[in-house]
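Review form for a predicted model. The reviewer records the input and the model, then writes brief findings.
Reviewer: anonymous (R2)
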Amino acid sequence: MTPEEYAKMHQISFRKAFDFLNSHFPPGDGMDWWKQAGEDIVKVSADGGDNKLLIGLLTGVFDYLELEWKRRRIANGTDN
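Model under review:
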């Protein structure tokens, strides 16, 4: 790939990961929310093709959503 092609791929990867996070934040509390989020992340990943950067970014976003969900449960006294 040319430097311009890499830059475009990087831009698209971060945009897709950001858009996924933005549309799934804050994390929901029920299993239905997590199931839908899992289905959505698979779709975004598939739409990106064999884009390893996008896959890594989406994995990081999903981990972040889980950490934020846990943090909120502890802060609200609903989890130990």
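Findings: Residues 52-75 form the longest helix (24 residues).
Further findings: The helical segments are 3-23, 31-47, 52-75.
Recommendation: see findings above.
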